[in-house]
Each structure stands twice: as C-alpha cells, then as structure tokens.
Amino acid sequence: MPDNPQKEQPRRRQARGERRIAQLLEAAASVFCTTGYTAASTNAIAREAGVSPGTLYQFFPNKEAIAIELGDRLMHEMREAYGEALAPVDPATPLEEAVGAAVDRFIAFNCDHPVFFALMHGPDIPGRIAEEHDALHATLVSRIEALLFSLLPDAPPADVTRTAHVCLGVYKAGLELVLAHQGAERDAYTREIKNVLIRYLEPLVGDRLGAPEDTGDTTTRTA
Q1: What average pLDDT does the structure give for the chain?
Q2: Residue 62: pLDDT over 90
Q3: 16 vs 194, which has greater pLDDT?
Q4: How far apart are the C-alpha atoms of 48 and 35, rounded to whole Å?
Q5: CA dist 173 to 22, 88, 151, 196, Å?
Q6: How far is it, in rounded angstroms, from Cα 37 to Cα 22?
Q7: CA 71 to CA 65: how far, in whole Å?
Q8: Residue ranges of the DNA-binding region (predicted)?
Q9: CB within 8 A of 161, min separation 6: which ones?
C-alpha cells in the first residue's frame, strides 16, 4: 500500500531543507577558509552558495549559527577519525607504522576539511566552538594517554600525560606547516612530523612495538 501523500510532502520538504543546509555549510566552509571567520559575512556565504540572503536566513539567523553548525558536524567527524587512528596497536606493529598511520589519518582529515583548522584556530571563533574544541582536545589527549599506557605500562601516569601533550603539540605545530603547502612539499612536511614523533617516542617505547610474539623461537629478528 503506498504511503500517504500528506506524509510524503513533509519528508520531501525536509530532504530539500537538508540539501540546502548542506549547500550553505559548504559555501560557508569555502568563505571561512578564504577570508577567515571574522571577515566573513552572511552575504558572502549566500553569494558563494548561489542563493539570496533571504534564503540563507530561512535556515540560519547569522554567521555564528552557521559556524556552530559547521563546527558541530566537523567535530563529530573528527571524533570518528581519531577513534580509528588511535585504536589499540598490535604489539607486532613497527613504531614507524603505528605513528605513520595515525598521522596520515589526521592529516587527511584536515586536508579534506581545511575549514576545521581555520575555525578552531581563528582569533575570533564563537564561544561554543571554543568550548567544544577544548573538550575535543581533552578527549584526544586521553586517547593518546590510553595508547601510551599500553606501550609504557610501568611509566608514572604524570609522565604519560606529559608525553601525550608533547605528541599532540608536535602534531598541531606541524599541521600548520602541512596545510600551508601543497603537493610534494606537503608530503615532505608530513614525513618530518612522523620523523619527529618517531624519534621522540622510540627511546621511550624501546622494543615494545615491532617485536615478534614469543613463540619459543630463539631466532633473532633483524632490522
């Protein structure tokens, strides 16, 4: 039996509304990346989206509301990205591979969504975004701590926390350089971030990563 046409109408309107919101958020991301949040205007966002300012105001009262909605969606995606990137590591995984996989995933997210960096590190971002970014930062540090505890089970908690903050700080500092370059230079800066993190963690982790499982075989593993 077909659906009630009266119920279909609201669903179609809702779908059109979602498409329009997605269109406006995409336009806002482009404008925020180009001009920064402070200099951006709703008129510029509407122009980028190819709609009238009146159409924009049907969905968002101001640019702050647009930035908050965009930030909420990006941070949801970011949480999924770092959840996968900081999953438990198999002890047989070489340190270079573990660090490289995590860095690659984070770099890919930020390169695919450059507005994330523009919003989260701008001088005049809305308060709610700043608060959510701080919460995201704290959660990210906690996930790095959990990963480090699996590699450094005997380390004092304060040392692990400090190491987690240093790892995140190194990555965030390097990310700005990565996003400022394209092509081969971007790849080169990404490799530098990995090298710094690997050389920092290697003396701490020792041979915990990349070591073969103990099967009773006394054969020495060579590099």
Answers
A1: 85
A2: yes
A3: 194
A4: 12
A5: 30, 25, 24, 11
A6: 18
A7: 10
A8: 41-60
A9: 141, 145
- Picking from 149, 151, 144, the residue whose alpha carbon sits closest to that of residue 171 is 144
Cβ atoms 83, 148 nearer than 8 A: no
pLDDT tens, 71-121? 999 988 888 877 777 776 777 788 899 899 889 988 999 999 999 888 887
Which three-class secondary structure string do you get for 33-62? Answer: HHHCCCCCCHHHHHHHHCCCHHHHHCCCCC
The answer on pLDDT for 220 being more than 80 is no
Helix boundaries (H) for the chain? 5-35, 42-49, 53-57, 63-85, 95-112, 114-120, 127-151, 157-179, 183-205
Tokens coding 190: 């990404």
Q: Name the CATH topology of 67-205.
A: Tetracycline Repressor; domain 2 (1.10.357)
Residue type, 29: A
161 close to 145: Cβ distance less than 8 angstroms: yes
40-72 core/surface letters (b: 16 or more CB in 10 A; e: else): bebebbbebbebeeeebeebbeebbebbbbbbe
Q: For residue 167, what pLDDT is reported?
A: 95
What was the pLDDT predicted at 4?
Answer: 60
Give CATH for domain 8-61. 1.10.10.60
Q: How far apart are CA 143 and CA 135, in angstroms?
A: 12
Residue spans of the domains in the chain: they are 8-61, 67-205
